[in-house]
From TrEMBL:
Keywords: Signal. Residues 1-33 form the signal peptide. This is O-glycosyl hydrolase. The keyword Signal applies. It comes from the Bacteria. InterPro entries: GH, Glyco_hydro_b. SUPFAM superfamilies: (Trans)glycosidases (SSF51445). Gene3D superfamilies: Glycosidases (3.20.20.80), Golgi alpha-mannosidase II (2.60.40.1180). The keyword Signal applies.
Length: 662
C-alpha cells in the first residue's frame, strides 16, 4: 500500500464543528477518559490507572483479489468529534461511508458501534470487517484463545498460533496471556476469522469480524456492535532515573514556534497570547515569494517602495519584525515560488500532480534571477524592517511543498545561493534539509559529502511528523555533529493531518503524545530548538476565540501549558544524558554546570509510581516541581529535597512534570 502524504502546512481549512461539540470536548478533558481512539477510527487501547493496555482495531475492506484497504493515519480524510464519553469518527473506505461511535462502557471496557452505507455497488468486494490485532509484545503466539457462543459454551480453544476456528457463529473471543486478558464480545453471533500477517513490524495475528460479506450493493447498510475489554497487571514498579552531568551535550536555546500567517481573523490573538505568555527562543516565518515578485521583469524592491507591496507580503514582513524586536532569531522559509521561477504550472494545492509528483522544480534557466529575488527580499526586510534573517530554506523541498528538489539540486542551491548572499553582504545562511520528515534523511547526503557547501550552511533541519525511531533520529544528530552546526526541528508536532479533525487537539492523549515526542527529540537529537507547528490558529494550542468554529472566550489548552512548561527551561543550557530503567517514562535533561541551573523534564505515560533521581550535582539542594495534565496547568508543587545528589518523589499518571532549580 502506497503511503499517502498529507502536508504539514495546508491552506485555509474548512472545518464544520459546532460550538456545543467543542464545549463538550473541552469538558471531556476533565473527565477520566479510558478508551483511546485515534481520530481515523482505530482503537489504540484502554487505559487503566494511567497505563495503556494496548489493542489495535481497524476497519478493513478486502477485495476478491486479496487487496486490503484499512483505516489508518493519513490514509483517509476522517472527521473526529467528542460528545462527553462518546467519540465519533466519520470516514470512508472506497465507496463505503462509515460512522464509528466509541464509548466508555465501564472499567477497562469500550463499546464500539460501526454503521456503514455503500454509495456504490462493489462487485469485487469479498468482505468488510472490524479487525482486532493483539499486540505481539503482550500476546505472544502461545497466548490462549477461547471462542464462545451466545450461551457461553466454548466452541474451540487453543493458542493464538495454532487455533482452529469453528464453522458455527460465535459471540465472543477471550485471549489470555501471562500479564494481559482481552475479551471481544459481539452484539450478534457471527463467524470469526484469524489470520497470521506480516508487515514491517514483523509477524502478528489479526481477528476479522464481518460487517458485510461478499459483494456490496449500492445503498446497502449494516450496523454492528462490539464490546472490547482489556485487563491486566499494571506496572507500578519504582523508576530509577540516572542523570549524568559529566557528559554535557549540545546547547538548547529554548522552545520556539512557526508563525506562518494563514488565518487573518484568528491568528493575531494566538500569536499575541503565545508571545506574551511563554519564552519563544527561535522563530520561523514565511517568505511569500510568489507574491513578492510575480513577474520576472519586475523590480520588487522598487515596487515595494512605491507602495505596491502585496498585503500578505507586508503582513509576513511585519510578523518577522514583531519577532525580531523581541530578540527572537528569524528563519525565513518559502513555501511557493512565482511561475517564472519554476518548471510547469506552480503547485498551489495539497496533492501530487498528474505525474504523481509534488510541487515544482526550480527553472534552471532562471536560477540567478531567483537568487537575486530572494536576496532582494532579505535585504528589504533588513532595510525597511530592521530584520536580520539568520537562516533561509525552501519548505519541505525533499517532497515538494511546493518547491521540489533532489538532493543534488539542494546541494547546488546551498552553494550558489549561499555564495550569492555573501556577494550581497548578507549574513543569512542556508538550512540543510528542512525536510518534510525525519525519514528522508538521504536528501542531505550530497551536501554532506560536498565540502564546498559547508561554509554556507547555518543549521540542519527536519520536521517531526514522521520518523521517530531512534536510529532515524540519530541520522540527523550525526549530520549536525559532522558539520559542527546546530540541529533545528523546523516543524514540531505529531500529526500532519490533524487540522482536518481539530477536536483531537483537545484530547489529553494527543497532548501527552506530543510532549512525549519532544522529550525523545531532546534526548536523542539534542536540537538547538524545536519550532512548534504553529503558534498561530493553525494547529492551534489555544481554543475559543472563533478558532475551529469555537466562539467561546480564547483560552490555553493542555497542549499550550505543555509548551509553556518546556519553554520555561532556563537559558544557556546544554543537553545532559538521562536514562530511565522502566518503560513509559520519557525523560530529557538540560543544564548549565557552571551556573548551577538544571531542568529535568519527565512524561509519565503509565501508572503513578515512585521515582529516584540520582546524579544530581551536590550543589543542588532543592528542585522546584511543575506539573501539567488534563486537570493542572503548569501547577507548582511541593519542592523536592536533594540529598547527596539524589532525590525521591512521586510521578503521577498521565503527567508532564518538570523539576528545575530556582
Amino acid at each position: 500500500m502506497v503511503r499517502k502524504y498529507l502536508p504539514a502546512s495546508p491552506r485555509m481549512w474548512k472545518v464544520l464543528l459546532t460550538t456545543n461539540l467543542l464545549l463538550l470536548g473541552t469538558a471531556a478533558q476533565k473527565a477520566a477518559a479510558q478508551v483511546e481512539l485515534a481520530p481515523w477510527g482505530n482503537l489504540t487501547g484502554i487505559r487503566t490507572d494511567g497505563q495503556l493496555l494496548e489493542v489495535e482495531t481497524s476497519l478493513r475492506l478486502v477485495k476478491t483479489d486479496g487487496h486490503v484497504t484499512e483505516t489508518g493515519k493519513e490514509r483517509q480524510r476522517p472527521k473526529y468529534t467528542r460528545e462527553g464519553t462518546r467519540q465519533l469518527v466519520t470516514t470512508q473506505l472506497d465507496s463505503l461511508d462509515f460512522v464509528e461511535t466509541v464509548q466508555d462502557a465501564g472499567p477497562g471496557k469500550a463499546r464500539v458501534q460501526v454503521q456503514l452505507t455503500a454509495r456504490n455497488s462493489m462487485p469485487n468486494s469479498s468482505g468488510v470487517y472490524f479487525s482486532v490485532q493483539p499486540p505481539v509484545a503482550a500476546y505472544p503466539a502461545s497466548s490462549t484463545v477461547e471462542v464462545r457462543d451466545a450461551n457461553g459454551t466454548v466452541l474451540t480453544k487453543g493458542t493464538l498460533g495454532s487455533l482452529k476456528l469453528p464453522s458455527s457463529p460465535a459471540s465472543s473471543i477471550r485471549l489470555t496471556a501471562p500479564t494481559r486478558q482481552l475479551t471481544i464480545t459481539f452484539g450478534e453471533p457471527m463467524p470469526v476469522e484469524l489470520k497470521q500477517e506480516q508487515d514491517k513490524e514483523g509477524l502478528h495475528y489479526r481477528f476479522y469480524l464481518p460487517l458485510l460479506t461478499g459483494s456490496v450493493q449500492r445503498g446497502q447498510t449494516a450496523q454492528k456492535t462490539f464490546t472490547v475489554q482489556a485487563t491486566g497487571s499494571i506496572d507500578r514498579a519504582p523508576v530509577k532515573l540516572t542523570l549524568n552531568p559529566a557528559q554535557p551535550g549540545r546547547p538548547f536555546a529554548g522552545f520556539g514556534g512557526n508563525f506562518r500567517l494563514q488565518n487573518p481573523k484568528t491568528d493575531p490573538q494566538v500569536i499575541d497570547y503565545s508571545l506574551q505568555n511563554m519564552r519563544v527562543a527561535w522563530s520561523r516565518v514565511e517568505m511569500p515569494w510568489q507574491l513578492w515578485q510575480p513577474a520576472q521583469d519586475q523590480d520588487p524592491t522598487t515596487a515595494a517602495r512605491q507602495g505596491k507591496l502585496h498585503p500578505h507580503v507586508r503582513e509576513s514582513m511585519e510578523m518577522a519584525q514583531k519577532l525580531s524586536k523581541q530578540g527572537i532569531p528569524i528563519i525565513l522559509s518559502a513555501w511557493s515560488a512565482p511561475a517564472w521561477a519554476v518548471v510547469g504550472t506552480p503547485a498551489r494545492g495539497s496533492g501530487p500532480g498528474p505525474d504523481g509528483k509534488w510541487g515544482n522544480p526550480l527553472n534552471t534557466n532562471n536560477l540567478q534571477a531567483s537568487y537575486k529575488s530572494i536576496a532582494d527580499y532579505i535585504q528589504y526586510l533588513k532595510d525597511q524592517y530592521a530584520v536580520d534573517v539568520a537562516l533561509f530554506s525552501f519548505n519541505e523541498s525533499d517532497l515538494g511543498i511546493n518547491i521540489r528538489q533532489t538532493g543534488q539540486e539542494h546541494a547546488q542551491l546551498i552553494k550558489e545561493l549561499g555564495a550569492y548572499f555573501v556577494s550581497r553582504g548578507l549574513k543569512t545562511k542556508l538550512m540543510l534539509g528542512d525536510n518534510s520528515d525525519a525519514t528522508s534523511y538521504e536528501f542531505m547526503t550530497p551536501a554532506l559529502q560536498d565540502a564546498s557547501t559547508h561554509p554556507y550552511i547555518g543549521a540542519v533541519s527536519f520536521h517531526s511528523w514522521r520518523g521517530w525511531e531512534t536510529e532515524t533520529l540519530q541520522k540527523w544528530s550525526a549530520a549536525a555533529k559532522q558539520l559542527q552546526l546546530p540541529l533545528i526541528v523546523g516543524e514540531g508536532s505529531i500529526d500532519a493531518q490533524a487540522w482536518g479533525y481539530p477536536a483531537i487537539f483537545l484530547e489529553p492523549t494527543y497532548a501527552l503524545e506530543e510532549i512525549s515526542l519532544y522529550m525523545r527529540l531532546l534526548a536523542v537529537c539534542q536540537p538547538l530548538t524545536i519550532l512548534q507547528w504553529q503558534l498561530t490558529a493553525d494547529y492551534s494550542p489555544m481554543a475559543g476565540g472563533g478558532i475551529f468554529g469555537d466562539n467561546t472566550p480564547l483560552r490555553p489548552t493542555q497542549r499550550f501549558w505543555n509548551l509553556k512548561q518546556l519553554a520555561a527551561t532556563p537559558k544557556n543550557v546544554v543537553a545532559l544524558p538521562i536514562t530511565a530503567d522502566r518503560p513509559n517514562v520519557s525523560a530529557a535533561a538540560l543544564g548549565n554546570i557552571q551556573e548551577g541551573k538544571y531542568a529535568v523534564h519527565l512524561v509519565n505515560n503509565g501508572a503513578t509510581r515512585r521515582v529516584t533521581l540520582t546524579g544530581v550535582p551536590e550543589t543542588v539542594k532543592e528542585l522546584q516541581v511543575y506539573t501539567t495534565d488534563k486537570a493542572r496547568s503548569m501547577q507548582k508543587g511541593k519542592a523536592v529535597v536533594v540529598k547527596k545528589g539524589s532525590a525521591q518523589f512521586t510521578l503521577e499518571a498521565g503527567t508532564y512534570t518538570t523539576l528545575s532549580t530556582k
